[in-house]
C-alpha cells in the first residue's frame, strides 16, 4: 500500500519534473513541526522507498538536474499511463515484495 505521503509525491511527480526544494515544501510545509531536521535526506529516503515499490510494476522515478547543486525528480513520461492504470486498478496493491 502507498502511504498518504507517497500518494502526494506521485501526484506531484506525475506531472513533470519537480525540484527537491519544492517537493520538500509541499510535503512538509503544512506540518506544525516544520518537518524533519534534515528534510533533504528525508526526501531522498522517501523517494528511494517509493522507487522500490513502483519498480516492481515497471514504473521509474528519475533524478533530474536543475543546475548547480539543484536536483529534483519526475516519473518517466512513458510510465505515466502505466502508473495511472496501476493506481486506479481495484485489485492491484502497490507494495514491496520483501518475502518473494
Structure description:
This protein is α+β, with helices and mostly antiparallel strands and 100 residues long. The protein has a single domain, classed as Arc Repressor Mutant, subunit A (Orthogonal Bundle). 45% of the residues lie in helices and 12% in strands. It contains 4 helices and 3 strands. The protein has helices at 4-13, 20-28, 39-55, 80-88; strands at residues 18-19, 61-65, 71-75. It has a 3-stranded antiparallel sheet. A hairpin with a 5-residue loop joins β2 and β3 (71-75). The relative contact order is 0.19. Residues 96-100 have low confidence and may be disordered.
Jot down its keywords.
disordered C terminus, three-stranded antiparallel sheet, Arc Repressor Mutant, subunit A, 45% helix, 4 helices, alpha+beta, 100 residues
Amino acid at each position: 500500500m502507498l502511504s498518504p505521503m507517497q500518494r502526494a509525491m506521485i501526484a506531484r511527480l506525475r506531472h513533470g519534473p519537480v525540484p527537491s526544494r519544492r517537493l520538500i515544501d509541499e510535503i512538509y510545509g503544512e506540518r506544525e513541526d516544520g518537518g524533519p531536521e534534515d528534510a533533504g535526506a528525508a526526501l531522498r529516503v522517501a523517494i528511494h522507498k517509493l522507487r522500490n515499490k513502483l519498480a516492481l510494476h515497471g514504473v521509474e522515478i528519475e533524478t533530474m538536474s536543475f543546475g548547480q547543486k539543484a536536483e529534483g525528480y519526475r516519473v518517466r513520461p512513458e510510465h505515466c499511463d502505466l502508473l495511472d492504470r496501476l493506481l486506479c486498478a481495484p485489485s492491484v496493491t502497490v507494495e514491496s515484495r520483501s518475502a518473494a
